[in-house]
Prior knowledge:
The structure holds two protein chains of two kinds. Chain A is α+β, with helices and mostly antiparallel strands. Chain A has 16 helices and 16 strands. In chain A, α6 runs antiparallel to α15. The longest helix of chain A has 29 residues, at 222-250. Chain A is globular, with a radius of gyration of 22 Å. The model of chain A has no long low-confidence stretch (mean pLDDT 89). Chain B is built from eleven helices and no strands. The mean pLDDT of chain B is 88. Chain B has helices at 5-33, 43-53, 64-82, 99-118, 123-154, 159-165, 176-192, 211-215, 220-245, 257-284, 293-313. Chain B is 68% helix and 0% strand. Chain A binds chain B through residues 137-141, 146-147, 160-161, 248, 250-255, 257-259, 262, 322, 324-325, 327-328, 332, 473-479, and chain B through 30, 33-36, 123-124, 126-127, 130, 196-197, 200, 202-208, 282-292.
Amino acid sequence: xxxxxxxxxxxxxxxxxxxxxxxxxxxxxxxxxxxxxxxxxxxxxxxxxxxxxxxxxxxxxxxxxxxxxxxxxxxxxxxxxxxxxxxxxxxxxxxxxxxxxxxxxxxxxxxxxxxxxxxxxxxxxxxxxxxxxxxxxxxxxxxxxxxxxxxxxxxxxxxxxxxxxxxxxxxxxxxxxxxxxxxxxxxxxxxxxxxxxxxxxxxxxxxxxxxxxxxxxxxxxxxxxxxxxxxxxxxxxxxxxxxxxxxxxxxxxxxxxxxxxxxxxxxxxxxxxxxxxxxxxxxxxxxxxxxxxxxxxxxxxxxxxxxxxxxxxxxxxxxxxxxxxxxxxxxxxxxxxxxxxxxxxxxxxxxxxxxxxxxxxxxxxxxxxxxxxxxxxxxxxxxxxxxxxxxxxxxxxxxxxxxxxxxxxxxxxxxxxxxxxxxxxxxxxxxxxxxxxxxxxxxxxxxxxxxxxxxxxxxxxxxxxxxxxxxxxxxxxxxxxxxxxxxxxxxxx
Amino acid sequence: xxxxxxxxxxxxxxxxxxxxxxxxxxxxxxxxxxxxxxxxxxxxxxxxxxxxxxxxxxxxxxxxxxxxxxxxxxxxxxxxxxxxxxxxxxxxxxxxxxxxxxxxxxxxxxxxxxxxxxxxxxxxxxxxxxxxxxxxxxxxxxxxxxxxxxxxxxxxxxxxxxxxxxxxxxxxxxxxxxxxxxxxxxxxxxxxxxxxxxxxxxxxxxxxxxxxxxxxxxxxxxxxxxxxxxxxxxxxxxxxxxxxxxxxxxxxxxxxxxxxxxxxxxxxxxxxxxxxxxxxxxxxxxxxxxxxxxxxxxxxxxxxxxxxxxxxxxx
Lengths: 493, 315
């Protein structure tokens, strides 16, 4: 579908010359971005590209209904720019990030503070939004938690048990992933990509491989694309199953909690059967897949998949049949579809608000161009909906894998990667199990990566958790948090 | 007040030693129902011994109340336990007021438990204390009404007399009043011992805790007394439930050794049966939303009130 837009359109997983990206003066650029966001389009990525002492802004928009992406850039400037956040909440964290990374000030930004870096005192220290009043008390949780989870700081403003406002401070795991790639790809880069978010190894590695292949003007062999799709769905199955178990555990529903913990392991072992690593490390490489499953292992995979799917069906049936679980899930952590659209929510959390957004469907690349997975949507926006969407996706990923493993494509799995095209920009979107993984790669005149921007789905969705908590009981926070199950290290980069 | 030293000593030891084992059994069975191996039933003894050996870390904001609370919690549970007949009918300690004194002692323990949670001024302890008080404000009257139902039939508020009169020939087990009162007491038991539809004893999520939130600041010896006291309180409430509503086999005064043996066996069997019911309830139910817990306890209260009413209606 062609649309009347000043932006240059491109499809997911393709590259274009940097010169072909339309360039506008700063004010016009921001006006154009604002106009598209006002039409209900989505901001996939928004970042700065330094040029000497000055800076250019680049926006990657997703036109989901048109199945295309759109890019545009501003002329280089320095000092400050008028913030989009005041009118378009989607830009909120992106503009704070631009300020933090490049020092240009978004003017009239309603809540300008660091995203990740601590300025010496730690992310948990600093100004937090405060509610005043005699009945108000403040609860601070983290960054050290009671369970074995990642570090993050949560600051609640409560009136009794009711949460009026939640502010989330992250950045404890900032490693400088984006900075480390500059001048690359280096030998370590692919390993760093696999661990951007450890539970989304396949998602991030595939996005990275797609971006590099697009820049090199090549494509992975079909069998490699097929393997990536298989591994991506196995990753989704393992994590969604683990999440259903964790949700059951948070409401102290013991049967499903303990069963799903075990079944998650079974799914991880299927990935290990494919590539020798439970998280899929070492499988996806730019140019194809490093490892391949032979006929015998694939038939074993098919058989063990069936057992695990039957078991997860039983464990989920216990969960859905328990009235006590249903009353606990329903109307907890409600997020309205309008709010979700305004903050640019992605992944299962967005689909649980009734938004039809799935990269596999809207912007198919690789094997998903030939084999579709139906989009799983649930309308209510509460914990129940988020659990339900996960269950639907478990079933549909299961069906997809059954279908694919019965018709295995033949051929090579690895091809050599030509040199990257100089002065080019590539965008690669992958629907990881948590939502849209967005990698944007820009090469310099020497064909080396000049800027590499990673947007983990968690970057969009943490705001959704904060909104879902408003007006909820503080005792429901762990359940709401688990229903989003966002990545801390994927956000912190 | 007559004190039989042997009886006194025996019941004290039974309370101290049996209580951790019962908690351990429940934990072990819960694990078994989830296809896990679970901790051995006697693991709780090792835990308490470990806590007793360990150093304590005490918040600099804590006052004497913080150090005082564990002893009060422990001793009130123990004293209340001595007033409930376990294996022979006149309980070793018979203060005036009978069952009212038991309820009062447990309330005193809870009062100090809540103070201990508030004292170090951590956000979690305060939340736990406030939740505990909200819940007990409804659970306590429900428990009193349920026990009064039995007390009216027995014509006394003395627990030993209640237990003895329930063994008499005129006592009907399936009296509607007693069925309702038992149901009310069972819900109270789940609430007072922090069991699943009300609280989750195994959770690590600070924000959802009730009982455990009040203990978060405790460590070492104090924690040992808190945990031990909680398990004794659980044993006392379960004893109250099984011996008042099903006093089968309970030995009377001056019972022979054989009668005491039978009584002990019957008592343990009843305790284990009740624990099994608790385990099944915990495994098949999810924890309730905190705001819904008062609804559950109000149901218990209404059941107990109906029980009291029906003692007059069905006489």
